[in-house]
Specification:
Elements (H helix, E strand, L loop, with lengths): L3 E5 L3 E3 L10 H14 L5 E6 L2 E6 L1 H9 L4 E7 L3 H14 L5 H15 L3 H8 L3 H11 L3 H9 L4 H7 L5 H11 L5
Parallel strand pairs: 2-4, 3-5
Antiparallel strand pairs: 1-5, 3-4
Helix pairs in contact: 1-2, 4-6, 6-8
Length: 184
Amino acid sequence: MEEIIFLNIDELAPNPLRPRSSFPYESLVKLSDSIRKHGIINPILVASTPAGYVVISGERRWRAAKLAGLTEIPAIVKKSSSEEALILSLVENIQREPLTIFEQGSTIQRLRSDFKLSLQEIGEKVGLSLNELEQRLKLLGLSDKVKNEILERKMDDRETLELAEKEDEKEIYREVIKKGRHSF
């Protein structure tokens, strides 16, 4: 098992070979707020190089932790070449599979029913607005047929959340068929 150590946040450098090239500020602010409330749940992965530590995996967490004012960050240190660091970074990004909108909605629903949290409390804890939470909950009410079409057509979260604004499920289904891309 690899050891988790705490590193000075200012002594880390971004991986110049990283696959991810954009870090939208709004997204970093949300993650920063979450880190302030909950801390860093998973340590970042860094490579030890002659020039110092380079972030292999977890650059968003590192940047958000800096925004949150942290001075140290939990990390796992790997001894790896530039090639290995790039491969690890790519693998980590490929393996990460976010929750679907429906899984998010179901979890929000469980927080409400099992733990009696209000939407406002949930929003504050997970960094989502009241509207974003309500959209996810509304989409849970769709029939399995429509949900499956959305998933099969690999609609992105933005497209899926826009569907929550529509009232009629038939209209939503038509929109899914029109917008979505079928996975083959």
